[in-house]
Amino acid sequence: MTLETGFERVTLPLEFPFTIARGTTEETENVIVRVGDGEHIGIGGAAPSAHYGETAATVEAVLPDLLAVVEEVGDPHQLARIERRMVERVNLNPAARCAVSIALHDLVAKRLDLPLYRYWGFDPEEVVETSYTIGIDETGAMREKTATARERGYSTLKIKLGTGRDEEIIETIRDEAPDATIRVDANEAWSPREAVRKIDALAEYGVEFVEQPVPAGNPEGMRFVRERSALPIAADESCVTLDDISRVAEIADIANVKLMKCGGLREARAMFAAARAHGLETMLGCMTESNASIAAACHLAPLLDYADLDGSLLLAEDPYDGVPLSEGEIDLAGVGRGTGVSVR
Ligand SMILES: [Mg+2]
Hints:
Protein name: Dipeptide epimerase
GO molecular function: isomerase activity; metal ion binding
Largest sheet: 8 strands, parallel
Structural class: alpha/beta
Family: Belongs to the mandelate racemase/muconate lactonizing enzyme family.
Oligomer: single chain
Shape: globular
Keywords: Isomerase, Magnesium, Metal-binding
Helix content: 25-40%
Strand order of the largest sheet: 4-5-6-7-8-9-10-11
Distance between the termini: 29 Å
Pfam families: MR_MLE_C (PF13378), MR_MLE_N (PF02746)
Order of helices and strands: EEEHHHHEHEHEHEHEHEHHEHEEE
Bound molecules: magnesium ion
Strand content: 15-25%
Number of strands: 13
Mean pLDDT: 97
Low-confidence stretches: none
């Protein structure tokens, strides 16, 4: 069959400037991919991360080669063949490949008139709620954002740390949200000894787990922290592709998979299977992303112990609708067909 493909860059302002240990962003650029069969159009999104070597420009540079693979194969149901050939044609560039993977999955499920989770046979009741992330800010501003998040019904908060006042921040947020589930992400900011000390303090405030306390380049440091940590440790920057899972199992308790790191929905499913086999808990995270990609990520929720799929929730406005996420509940049963993505 003849498949029509195309892509466009979109600039998405964030609701609040978003600061993590590495820096601040006020807007994000995604690249939206479309694959059509003449009747249905599958939509996918790339949310490139400079930390992993990609920008909107690099995504746009490789998409013509990736979409040429789609047109050559000419059958969207040949997901394994297309994804294998994309890696052969353009290695690295995972966000670019991911956008194509998502668009194809959306198209296939639309052609079958099924929501994606039903195509996979997943149980829509087996979902966890997504966390909502509070970026680093003045402590008072983080208190206000916490109050806003609670008013919007989010009961699981992910707090970005990596400052000289980390304990003050958590004390403040716990005071503002005494009954919320609180997770922490240090984004590689701490030294191993500092991490152990800080995690001891965080445990006093009932934090659930701590993500990437020390740099991914220091796996021995991660192991050091995990062996002494009062809380479970999640690996994010240390957990990029399937190859990493066995190593992550040696140094962490939770594998934080992201579609934009691993390159597609099939790779993500393989990572979750491998993580289970290695005794890891599973988490799916995201970049600052539109529903063009978040919608697909939501269909993996039945495989997760923890979901951090707030990319679209952090945008000032998302041009795409996706899976309903009211109060953090991932409402897969509310999806008609495909990933649930549609132009708003
Ligand atoms: Mg993280």
